[in-house]
Amino acid sequence: MGELIRVGMADMNICRAPDRITTLGLGSCIGLVLFDIGNAVCGMIHIMLPDSSISKVRDNPAKFADTGIDELIKRLERAGLRSSSLCAKMAGGAKMFSVGGADGTLSIGERNAEAVRNILKQRNIPLISLDCGGTYGRTIEFDPITYRLKIRAIGKKEVYI
Amino acid sequence: MEEMRLEELSDIEFDVLKEISNIGTGNAATAISKMLDGRVDIKVPDIRFLDFNELPEIIGGAENEVIGILVALERDVEGMMMFVMDKKSASVVVSGILGREYTELGELPDEMETSVLKEFGNIIAGAYLSAISKLTGMTIVPSVPALSDDMAGAILSVPAIEFGKMSDRVLLIQSEFSGGSGNAEGFFILVPTLKGFDNIFTKLGLKKG
């Protein structure tokens, strides 16, 4: 049956079938999966912030879209995938709270999603499907055999993208 | 101004944050017990650093359904303050304030329940912040509260992201209260920006401006 590998906040991991990979309770963060159709290996990252230039503390590359995606590509290459054949699916980037006169923090979900899309484009990685935005949290789970990304939210039907 | 690294708070600075939290929580608890018409117990505030992933564990794990009430802070201390309760505690609070029999909140709280919870958050935040203002002589202006009923991981990602800009960990100023007609408990999380931290310490004479 394989195991379910968990990816924490500001964290990344590689998964090989028959294992599956998940990250729980995405809010404004982005859950991104990179995979190669024809290979049963994939990588998932839970990104918190759009750009490493936002922060003075950059010890953890997985926290940011720019440094995180590049690090994940490197790890997938080490696991035997070619960066030129990677594809992506992503979810998250919600706006969990609407405070009047909202400052940057509250639209961070949108900025995260946009940053990830831009970086994928720059790296020539096609984005196959996405489920972003809204005002609710998501748990995602990816199966590197079917390449389907399952999305679970409270009070909503499970969807696959 | 010297760049402050959050992980390098001194013992004195830690104690100051604890004391601020203590006073804020005490004030908020008085407000809560008035609203719920019952005695409210508070635990001594706990202040510690957590890894991002440990944060949702304080309230049942990343997928546990919780209610978060958030106010943004402006003026002398910028940042945010969040109050988090599990669904059962929120049900106790709403039932208590509305003076009805204990009723479990539905999948999504209705308009009335939502506004009761927001008002509850508003009063708590106000009580908490006015205590801090009195202690430090600073003006802190809270926004209108916003409410979210969702997975703990998703709700707590909002303060976690704010910390993510200045640290790889979250500073949890946790004040737990319990009591009321049933038994409700919740957590406050105060998230000043780095500048906000700096202003607090400067104002209290721990740092040169």
Would you mind describing this structure in some detail?
Helix content of chain A is 18%, strand content 34%. Chain A has 161 residues and is α+β, with helices and mostly antiparallel strands. In chain A, the strands form two sheets. Chain A has a five-stranded mixed beta sheet, with no helix packed on it. In chain A, strand 8 and strand 9 form a beta hairpin. Chain B is α+β, with helices and mostly antiparallel strands and 209 residues long. In chain B, 42% of the residues lie in helices and 27% in strands. Chain B contains five helices and eight strands, in the order H-E-E-E-E-H-H-E-E-H-E-E-H. In chain B, helix 2 packs across helix 3. Chain B is globular and about 50 Å long. The relative contact order of chain B is 0.26.
Give the topology.
The complex is a heterodimer of chains A (161) and B (209).
Chain A: E1 4-6, E2 11-16, E3 20-26, E4 30-35, E5 41-47, H1 65-78, E6 87-92, H2 108-122, E7 127-132, E8 138-143, E9 148-152, E10 159-160
Parallel strand pairs in A: 1-3, 6-7
Antiparallel strand pairs in A: 2-5, 3-8, 4-5, 4-6, 8-9, 9-10
Chain B: H1 11-36, E1 40-42, E2 46-51, E3 65-75, E4 79-86, H2 87-98, H3 111-136, E5 140-142, E6 146-151, H4 152-164, E7 169-179, E8 184-192, H5 194-203
Antiparallel strand pairs in B: 1-7, 2-7, 3-4, 3-5, 3-6, 4-8, 7-8
Helix pairs in contact in B: 1-3, 2-3
Instruction: Determine and state the CATH class of chain A.
Output: Alpha Beta
CATH class of chain B: Alpha Beta
What proportion of the residues of chain B form beta strands (DSSP E)?
25-35%
Class based on secondary structure composition and strand pairing of chain A: alpha+beta
Radius of gyration of chain A: 15 Å
Q: Helix and strand string of chain A, N-terminal first?
A: EEEEEHEHEEEE
Main beta sheet of chain A: strand number and arrangement? 5 strands, mixed
How many domains of chain B? The number is 1
Short synopsis of the structure:
Chain A has helices at residues 65-78, 108-122; strands at residues 4-6, 11-16, 20-26, 30-35, 41-47, 87-92, 127-132, 138-143, 148-152, 159-160. By secondary structure, chain A is α+β, with helices and mostly antiparallel strands.
